[in-house]
Amino acid sequence: MKTLDLLHRWTGGLVGLVLLVLGLSGTILIHRDAWVMLPHASDEQVQDTPAIIAATEQMMADPAARPSAISFATDGFGLNRLSFGREAGAYADQAGNIVTHWDDAWERPELFLFDLHHHLLAGETGEIVAASAGLCGLFFVISGAILWWRTRSTFRFRLLPARLSRPAILWHHRDLGIVFAPLLALVIFTGTTMVFRPVTALVLGPSAPATIERSFKGPEAKLGALAEKPDWARMIRTARERFPDAEIRILSLPKEAGKPITLRMKQPEEWLPNGRTTLWFAPDTGRLIEARDALKLPGAAQAFNTFYPLHAAKVGGLAYRLVMTLVGLALSLLGSLAVWSFWFRRNRTARRVATGQTVPAE
């Protein structure tokens, strides 16, 4: 038990700041749709087929400046988001008129926070660091629950420590951690699994990662070049005919020559905000190549599709968003106070003991 306690404290002292960044940025992102203050951001979502077609044709009209992808407005955010190249993008109203444009993600606070939360502003390396911190977080939850059991009779719940002394912070850390342990485990597990697929295999089975990748991969057909004016109307109408109750969510141009145009839809039964019901169209003619119903995917793929909405509070309405807000704040508090007490308050206490000063009892 002493070894477990040492591992818990030292790992927390080293990783706590990363968990603070992830917890705080994630908490703010939960409410992103509410604080993006732009014209038409609060407009009611439009999913009428003729309106979607007209807006798409408007946004894709110029072959020299068309976006690589369009994420259509949701019921909580009334703007379409356009992607241009690596980091450039724009927001457009639901008629297809540009509202604002940016050349770098740092120009938009919500995109900056998203990059901070997912990649720690360091690309793939930061993503691996964040996921590794998530694995440490799972260790903290499990080891913390084991260590708490020894002192369960002294449990007292406080939102904040009684005082900023090391014993009070440790007491608070232990008891706050056990209260939020189940939800912390859920948030950390779902976030880590989306980056480290081997973690998925531990829960969904050894074949799950391959099944998931195969379920989301597009058709291998070799197709013609992208037309100067693709038949957007034909594609959108075909999608509506196949899935009449589904929302049009993301339209993506092929990243390579000979690849299809991709259209993602969200059926009412899907939790994933952008859905995983996918249709692929020939880039030259607009004919349907393949349609894949998310509700008929293998069980492992359907289970994986629930991880993001659970992690980002995209399901469960306001009540679940508020719960996840508390979880994110708890993670931030646990991480920051753990680092502070381990590296600073501990040293102060040690110096006072070494000089013969009395350390107040808690």
Automatic annotation (TrEMBL):
The keyword Transmembrane applies. The chain crosses the membrane at residues 12-30, 128-149, 176-196, 318-343. Keywords: Membrane, Transmembrane, Transmembrane helix. Signal peptide: none annotated. It holds the Pfam family PepSY_TM. This is PepSY domain-containing protein. It comes from Sphingomonas ursincola.
